[in-house]
Amino acid sequence: MKKIERAIISVSDKTGLIELAKELDKHGIEIYSTGGTLRTLNEAGIDAISIGKYTGFPEILDGRVKTLHPKVHGGILAKRDNDSHMESLSSYDVLTFDLVCINLYPFEEVVRKDNFTFEEAIENIDIGGPSMIRAAAKNYKDVAVIVDPSQYKEFLRRFSENSGEFSEEYRFQLAVEAFSRTASYDSIISQYLYGLQGEKFPAGFSLAMKRFQNLRYGENPHQEGAFFMPALSEKLPWDQLHGKELSYNNFLDLDAAISVARDFSEPVCAIFKHTNPCGISLGKTQLENLERAIQTDPVSFFGGIISFNDKIEPETAELINKHFFEIVVAPEYDDKALEILKKKKNLRLIKIPNLHELSMSQIEIKNSSFGFLLQESDSRIVTEKDLNIVTKKKPEKNEIEELLFAFQVVKYIKSNAVVFTKDNHTLGIGAGQMSRLDSMDIAVKKAKDAKLDLTGSCMASEAFFPFRDAVDLAIKAGAKAIIQPGGSMNDEESIKAADEAGIIMAFTGIRHFRHG
């Protein structure tokens, strides 16, 4: 056990500072400090000593240099059981420091603000603080280091129980947290500066994350799991109003369900299972949208996640409660609807007030065998001006709208992906097959099982048709219009098949592969 006799305290966040310093002062621990921290301590009647007075060198360059001095870093880094180190300290009148309590300039808070200048950001890059933190963490066997006010309570508990002494195990724990803090701090600065250069994928990519919650388990019970968010995030973009804690799989499904609700401006209802939509309906009343989304796949929706982009009404809540769902997502809930839904003990109710203004991550990160794959998020939404009508038959206005709806929906389905829609309502969905023909068969079978007529429907594919066979199957199923990216060597064969049947085909030039 090592006892603390002398401390350096220099903090930008003064939360809990006085309580911590008073306890140290009460036990006769010498406190050295700088700038605003020194003034705060002295005003509170704590006899803190100026580091400038100790080093014999004042703060200079408007405070840019305060603690970068051998008498500071020597006193932190010296190994107490190394005679040579201790002789050097004695030769130069260097004191040993047993505790370093530092929290850094608030760079994160500055760059979170709506309005700040580049100069303001630069001046909030701490130099001396990280240096002292890293020095103390490196020499954890002799020095305890605290980097956040959230650590004060546990530190003081141990301090009180052990008369100012701390085990090597606890010092090591503090050192790990200290290095994590400086790594995160530097990563955030790096991201900000790279962003100014417009680089999405710089040569060296670091991502500062913080854990928001541990999960009961990962994808399966034998896997551990946790949910992290970017370090600059202050809170989740939603409030959970009711129900069990979200699981790893819930978070995955939520991502897809929220994307659909956010991307459509008209009222929409989407039901997701395993990140694939079971049914989506657009543009009707909320209750009709829910009924039609269920109707698409009246078997698979069981245990799914429902998302809406409008306020949940009581009649919608009544229908939801007649079935088993895991999660409901919406920007708002009517009071009566909330009362109804809360009757289901485990039903998770998620409220996202600013759904349409929600800023989703622009970069996706996936594991590969020996590293990570990064890409821009697929946020592209195809509009009428993107369409190239390649068949003799041309679409009417309502058919264009239906084609665009179908292609937007197919974007959310895992490849190979096929969807049939009519009246802005999914009729049959085929997802995640090795062959597009298999996806076609599944979509047609799903519609047949649900007793939904594909006659006069639109069919969308997220990628081009390598042969005309898929087009022939769509025509046989009853499709009157097809939308696909185009770009195959055999596009002419597909166009010929559509012309022979007298149906519409639109190319978008945009592919929506979804493999993960």
Question: Any overview of this molecule?
Answer:
This protein is of the alpha/beta class. The chain has three domains: 2-196, Methylglyoxal synthase-like domain (Rossmann fold); 238-357, Cytidine Deaminase, domain 2; 381-507, Cytidine Deaminase, domain 2. It is 37% helix and 21% strand. It contains 18 helices and 23 strands. The strands form six sheets. It has a six-stranded mixed beta sheet with strand order 10-15-14-13-11-12, with helices on both faces. Strand 2, helix 1 (17-26) and strand 3 form a beta-alpha-beta unit. Helix 17 (469-477) runs parallel beside helix 18 (491-501). The longest helix has 29 residues, at 168-196. The radius of gyration is 31 Å and the shape is elongated. It starts with a strand and ends in a 9-residue tail after the last strand. The mean pLDDT is 91.
